[in-house]
Amino acid sequence: MMIGALWRGASGMRAQQVQVDSLANDIANVNTTGYKQVRVGFSDLVYRPVMEAGMPVEQPQAPGSTVSLGTGVKVASIVKDFSQGALVQTGEPLNLAIQGEGFFAVVNGAGERFLTRDGNFHRDADGNVVNDGGYYLAIPAGNNQDVPLNLPPEAENINVAADGTITATVNGQVQPLGQIYLYTVSNPAGLEAVGDNLYRLTPACGQLFYGAPGTAGNSETTGTPGPVLGTLRSGYLEAANVDLAATMTRMVVAQRAYELNSRTIRVADEMWSLANNLRR
Amino acid sequence: MLRGLYLASTGMLVQEMRQDVISNNLANATTGGFKSAVATVRSFPEMLLQRLEKNQAIPIGPFSPGVMVDNIYTNTEPGPLTETGHATDLALVQPGVGVSPAFFVVRTPGGEAYTRNGQFQVDPGGWLVTAEGYPVQGQNGDIYVGTTDFKVDAGGRILVNGQVVDQLRVVTFANPALLQRQGDTLFTAPGAQALPAANFQVKQGWLEESNVDLARELVDMLAVLRSYEANQKVIQTEDQTLAKSVNEVGSLR
């Protein structure tokens, strides 16, 4: 039995350790553009009945009910919190922030598509709109294909409207140069964070929807309508959505909970020692 | 003498089990919707001791052979609420004191289960599920929302794009003592009928925290430790007395 109390305490310490680790990662990324904090959810472990021989437990009066002991705690979920981060002004027209739901899709050299909330884009030597890692901003071309958004080198005074339309002055004339689309999935919790502010699409994401900012997206495969996508703010970047005050508070709670569980282990150990010293 | 030994040992066993319950409560001090447990202790049924004298049984009074755990009782009082702002976080609020607790209904492979932990998610298929992936139940069974952008009103109706898609099933029990714990912050109710709950409110963007009272658990834990120690001392004393009577009384020197 004493060993049971030890394991319960250990399960609690381990769970709080995961909480502290995730909070530490949130704090480390407090200045990362488009970073989304994570939430750790706990749940209790299975209960086992204590109707055993030699156990001083009375049979309960109520039929069908059993006296049972819990066996500790586990981390049930670690979920990204995709709520909106604050917008920070940069003045750069190709710095884009999303207000509302949705992601930018970027494609790497191997043709793999990633989603990101980090809108820190610029033009590369070929005029393609790329992110810091050189991945190009994807524009859907049908049949699950993407093409890069290309802005001619002579384009000046680039302007991105809230609905994603791009205009620029080319050879003294204001011209439309294209359209930025936003993507979203039915289950953002299924996105796999792969670092560099990027999320990889997994089968757990469900359907992928895309559309112009401010409209309801359409499913890429079935064409069914999806959630309403957010709008773009040109000249802004989305800051991390880490709430430092709340994170520090959670850190204190996690530390105290860790201490409590280490105390249950100490007490169980002391009780065990008392039992061992029955005969000195 | 030997009776005293056994009596004190039942005391130690009971304190061990209380420590098991407390350690589980403390491990779940930050588990959403967790309900703390208390081991209630009572003495074994008393028996009448009798003395034989001149072939006659003369009663000399009652004697208890120790203590045992009467029940491990779940404290179903609501835990404090915290605001999270997440659409998928739901909490049940019931006005009044001592009302029978209301629960969300989830579908598990083992049948219906009930939970107060409203930290739900939208799964890849667009269904509203618990952290373990069990579908939350509405009036029409599993609830399809398709997006995390939905509203839940105080009555539990779920609105996607302003359209009511379903209403959460919220149930209560005439006798909450029949609920059994399953882990994953779920309860089952074998042998009890789930009744539709009345007089409750669903709060979206809020979560119910664990109802573990840390100060009380810590005090209980210290009481457990000291009581365990006292019982150990009793056993040692009994043992010493026994040693005296066996080894010293009537020994030849």
Automatic annotation (TrEMBL), chain A:
Keywords, in A-Z order: Bacterial flagellum
PANTHER family: FLAGELLAR BASAL-BODY ROD PROTEIN FLGG, FLAGELLAR PROTEIN
Annotated Flagellar basal-body/hook protein C-terminal domain residues: 233-278
GO cellular component terms, A-Z: bacterial-type flagellum basal body
Protein name according to UniProt: Uncharacterized protein
Flagellar basal body rod protein N-terminal domain location: 9-36
Residues in Flagellar hook protein FlgE/F/G-like D1 domain copies: 97-168
GO terms for biological process, alphabetical: bacterial-type flagellum-dependent swarming motility
Family designation: Belongs to the flagella basal body rod proteins family.
Localisation: Bacterial flagellum basal body
Main location: other
Organism of derivation: Moorella thermoacetica (strain ATCC 39073 / JCM 9320)
Automatic annotation (TrEMBL), chain B:
Domain Flagellar basal-body/hook protein C-terminal: 203-246
Domain Flagellar hook protein FlgE/F/G-like D1: 102-158
GO biological process, one term: bacterial-type flagellum-dependent swarming motility
Flagellar basal body rod protein N-terminal domain sequence ranges: 5-35
GO CC term, one of those recorded: bacterial-type flagellum basal body, rod
Keywords on record: Bacterial flagellum
Cross-referenced InterPro entries: Flag_bb_rod_N, Flagellar_FlgE/F/G, Flg_bb/hook_C_dom, FlgE/F/G-like, FlgF, LlgE_F_G-like_D1
Subcellular location: Bacterial flagellum basal body
Origin: domain of life: Bacteria
Family named by the database record: Belongs to the flagella basal body rod proteins family.
Protein name in UniProt: Flagellar basal body protein
Species: Moorella thermoacetica (strain ATCC 39073 / JCM 9320)
